[in-house]
Design a protein that fits this description.
The complex is a heterodimer of chains A (500) and B (156). Chain A has 23 helices and two strands. Chain A is mainly α and 500 residues long. In chain A, strands 1-2 form a two-stranded antiparallel sheet. The longest helix of chain A is centred in the N-terminal third of the chain and has 34 residues. In chain A, 62% of the residues are buried. Chain B folds into two domains: 56 residues; 76 residues, no CATH class. Chain B contains seven helices and no strands. Chain B is flat. In chain B, 26% of the residues are buried. Classes of the chains: A mainly alpha (500), B mainly alpha (156). The interface between A and B is large, with 62 and 70 residues.
Chain lengths: 500, 156
C-alpha cells in the first residue's frame, strides 16, 4: 500500500495535476454556489476538456470540480440561505443564522475546516478500505454484479425521489432504454436505430449528461424566471466578519468532526445515498449527541449544527468513490458521470483497476486530499471575491452554459445530429423536471445499462436461462434481499402516506 | 381518479414503453441465437415490460401529492427563442464554422434574454470565442473545423 501511496503522490503532485486540482476547485466552487446548478453540471461541462488530458489528470480535474462544487454549495447556503446543491441544505440551518448575526466569516471558516477535516478523515478511511474491498470484490461473479446494479438503481430511485419512487423507477427504465440504443455489444446487431447511421454507436454518455443536467438546468432557470445571480448581489465584502475560530468553538468542532466523518463516509459508500442524506442524518444525530443547552441553539447558529452536516457531506463525497473504484459501480449520480468519463478514457473501474492502473487508483485518492488542502488555502480567503463573480447576470450566464454544453458535444463528434438530439433530450428533461421526475436515476441507469445487460447475459447463459442465479449464491441472495427491503419500505411509506 | 399532467406524462411513457416493446420483439437476431437463453432482444423486452409496469402503476394509483405548475408564471417565450437559436446554431455550425456561428449564437442569446449593452454583448461573444478557440485548438490541440476562418485565411 505504501508503494501505491507513493505512486499516487508522485502522479498527483506533478505541476500539471496540482494546477488541475486548483482549476477544478475554483470552477467547481463557482458552479456549486449557483442555486440550481450542482456538481453534476460542473463535472459534465468539464468532461470534453478532460479528454485533452491523460486519464489520471482528467479524473483529478473532475474530483477537484466535485469537491469545489460541494464547498461552493455550502458557501451559498451560509451567505445567502440558497443552497447550491441539495447536500448543503442542512448547512443553511445553522450557517445562515450565524451569517445573519454578523458572523458569516466565522461560519465560512467553520464550514471550510469541517469540510477539510471530514474529507481528510474520509480519505484515510478510503485509503485503508478501498484496497481490501478491491481484493474482496475480485470474488464477485456476474450474478453478484447484476444484483448489485439492481440494488444501486433501486437505492438511487428511493433516495433521490423525494417520495416519488415510481417516478424515479420510470426514469431508471428510461435511462436503461436510452442505453440500449445502438449496436448490441456481443452480436453487433443494431437496435432502436431506425436505420439512422448516427445512432449505430449508441447515444453518447456526455450528450445525455449535458442534456439532462447542464442544458436542462439552464433552460429551467429561464423557464422558471429564477435568477441565481440576484442573491449573490446581496453579499457584501465588508460584512463577512472575522474568520477566526475561538477555543470553545474549536473544542465543539473537535467533538463533532470524528463521529460525523464516520456517518458521512458510511452513508457515502451505500449505493444511491450520498451527501444529502449524510448531511441530514448527521445533523439529526448530532442534535441527539449534544447537551440540552446546546440542543436549544440548533437552528439559531449552533457550531455543532454547522460542523455536523459539513463534515458529513464531504466525507460522503469520498465514500461515494469506494463502490466506483472497487466495484466499478457508481453509488451516486455524480460518480456515475465520473464512471462515464472513465469509460470514455478506455478505463474500466473495478477491482482490477487497483492492479492494472494503480497510478490512476492511487492518484485519485491522493488528489482528493490535495483537493481538500487547496480548497482550504485557496477558497477561504477568496470566497467574498468568488461570491462577487456570481453577480454575473443570468443574461450572460445561461448562454454561456448552453455554449459550453453544445461545444462539448460538437468537439466530440462534429455532428449536427448530436446537437439536435441533445436539444431534444434537454427540452423533454426540462419539462419532466417541472413535474419532479428526478434526473440522477436516469444518468446512473444510462451508465450502468451496458454493464447490466452484459452481466445478465452471462448469468442467464451460465444458468441456462433460469433466474435461480439470483438466489443460488448467498452473496447474490443477500444483495437481492436488501433490494427487496428497500422496495418494501417504499411501498409501506406510500401506503402510510395514503392513509394519512 | 384525477387526470393531471403527471398522469398524462405517465400515459405517454406507457405508450412509449409499449412501442419500445413492440420494436424490441421485432429486433432481428441471428437464427442460431433465436432460442438462446439470452440474445440481443432479451434485455430490451424486459425493459419494455418494466416501463409499462411502472408507468401503469403511476396511472392507476391515486396521487398523494399532486404537483401543480403555474404555467402562467413560466417564461415560455424566452425559453422557446433560446431553443430555436440553439437549433439554428446546430444547423449552421458545420457549414459556416465554429468561430462565427458560436459568436453569433452567444450574441443573439444575450440579446434574446434582454441584454442591450452592445459592448458587453460583443466582448462576451467574438473575443471570448476567439480566446476559447485558442485554448481548445491551440493549447489543448482539440481539432475545430472552421470553413469560415479557412476561407479568410486565419486557419490553415
Amino acid at each position: 500500500m505504501i508503494e501505491g501511496i507513493l505512486i499516487g503522490l508522485k502522479t498527483a503532485l506533478t505541476f500539471q495535476n496540482i494546477f488541475m486540482v486548483m482549476i477544478g476547485c475554483f470552477f467547481g466552487t463557482i458552479i456549486g454556489m449557483l442555486p440550481g446548478l450542482g456538481p453534476m453540471t460542473a463535472i459534465a461541462l468539464m468532461i470534453p476538456i478532460t479528454y485533452g488530458f491523460d486519464p489520471a489528470t482528467g479524473l483529478i480535474l473532475m474530483a477537484g470540480v466535485y469537491y469545489g462544487a460541494v464547498f461552493g454549495g455550502s458557501t451559498s447556503s451560509i451567505l445567502l440561505n440558497a443552497p447550491g446543491v441539495p447536500g448543503t441544505v442542512a448547512t443553511s440551518f445553522d450557517g445562515y443564522p450565524m451569517a445573519q448575526q454578523g458572523k458569516a466569516g466565522k461560519a465560512l471558516a467553520i464550514a471550510a475546516w469541517s469540510s477539510f477535516a471530514g474529507g481528510t478523515l474520509a480519505t484515510i478511511y478510503l485509503l485503508f478500505l478501498a484496497p481490501s474491498l478491491s481484493k474482496v470484490s475480485l470474488s464477485f461473479r456476474s450474478p453478484d454484479y447484476f444484483a448489485l446494479m439492481i440494488l444501486g438503481l433501486t437505492a438511487i430511485a428511493a433516495f433521490s425521489s423525494k417520495g416519488q419512487f415510481i417516478k424515479a423507477m420510470m426514469m431508471v427504465v428510461l435511462g436503461l432504454m436510452l442505453a440500449s440504443v445502438g449496436q448490441d455489444s456481443l452480436s453487433d446487431i443494431t437496435r432502436f436505430t431506425f436505420n439512422n447511421m448516427n445512432l449505430t454507436d449508441g447515444i453518447s454518455f456526455v450528450l445525455v449528461v449535458m442534456a439532462t443536467f447542464a442544458m436542462s438546468e439552464a433552460l429551467t432557470i429561464i423557464l422558471k424566471r429564477n435568477d441565481p445571480s440576484a442573491v449573490a448581489k446581496q453579499v457584501s465584502l465588508t460584512e463577512l466578519g472575522s474568520i477566526k475560530i475561538n477555543k470553545e468553538e474549536r473544542t465543539q468542532m473537535l467533538k463533532a468532526i470524528p463521529r460525523n466523518s464516520v456517518i458521512g463516509f458510511l452513508i457515502g459508500v451505500l449505493p444511491g445515498a450520498g451527501a444529502t442524506i449524510a448531511s441530514f442524518l448527521a445533523y439529526g444525530m448530532e442534535r441527539n449527541f449534544v447537551s440540552d443547552e446546546e440542543k436549544a441553539k440548533f437552528g439559531k447558529g449552533s457550531v455543532h449544527g454547522l460542523t455536523a452536516p459539513e463534515t458529513a457531506n464531504n466525507a460522503a463525497c469520498s465514500g461515494a468513490f469506494v463502490p466506483l473504484l472497487t466495484l466499478g459501480i457508481p453509488g451516486s449520480g455524480t460518480t456515475a458521470v465520473m464512471l462515464g468519463a472513465l469509460l470514455g478514457f478506455g478505463i474500466q473501474p473495478g477491482p482490477r483497476l487497483y492492479i492494472t492502473n494503480p497510478e490512476i487508483f492511487w492518484s485519485v485518492i491522493m488528489s482528493m486530499y490535495i483537493g481538500m488542502v487547496i480548497l482550504l488555502i485557496l477558497n477561504l480567503p477568496l470566497i467574498p471575491y468568488i461570491a462577487r463573480i456570481l453577480a454575473v447576470p443570468k443574461n450572460y450566464l445561461i448562454p454561456l452554459i448552453l455554449f459550453f454544453s453544445i461545444t462539448g458535444i460538437y468537439v466530440m463528434s462534429f455532428n449536427n445530429f448530436d446537437i439536435y438530439l441533445m436539444i431534444g433530450i434537454a427540452v423533454i428533461a426540462t419539462f419532466m423536471r417541472l413535474y419532479d421526475f428526478p434526473m440522477p436515476p436516469l444518468i446512473l441507469a444510462f451508465v450502468l445499462g451496458g454493464l447490466m445487460e452484459e452481466n445478465l447475459r452471462r448469468s442467464l447463459l451460465i444458468s441456462d436461462g433460469s433466474w435461480d442465479f439470483l438466489w443460488s449464491r448467498p452473496l447474490t441472495a443477500s444483495i437481492i434481499a436488501v433490494t427487496i427491503s428497500i422496495v418494501s419500505w417504499q411501498v409501506y411509506k406510500t401506503l402510510k402516506n395514503r392513509k394519512v | 381518479m384525477n387526470i393531471n399532467t403527471t398522469k398524462i406524462i405517465s400515459l405517454l411513457f406507457f405508450i412509449f414503453s409499449a412501442l419500445y416493446l413492440y420494436t424490441a420483439y421485432n429486433i432481428q437476431v441471428f437464427s442460431f441465437d433465436e432460442n438462446s437463453p439470452f440474445n440481443a432482444k432479451t434485455f430490451p423486452i424486459y425493459l419494455g415490460y418494466a416501463g409499462m409496469f411502472f408507468s401503469g402503476l403511476k396511472i392507476i394509483l391515486p396521487e398523494v401529492n399532486t404537483i401543480k405548475v403555474d404555467h402562467k408564471s413560466l417564461e415560455y417565450k424566452k425559453t422557446a427563442i433560446l431553443v430555436l437559436i440553439a437549433i439554428i446554431y446546430g444547423f449552421t455550425i458545420l457549414k459556416v464554422g465554429y468561430f462565427l456561428t458560436t459568436s453569433l449564437f452567444l450574441a443573439s442569446s444575450y440579446y434574446a434574454l434582454g441584454e442591450r449593452r452592445w459592448l458587453w454583448i460583443f466582448l462576451l461573444s467574438f473575443p471570448f470565442v476567439a480566446l476559447f478557440m485558442y485554448l481548445l485548438h491551440g493549447v489543448l490541440e482539440i481539432y475545430l473545423r472552421d470553413p469560415f476562418l479557412k476561407l479568410i485565411g486565419v486557419m490553415g
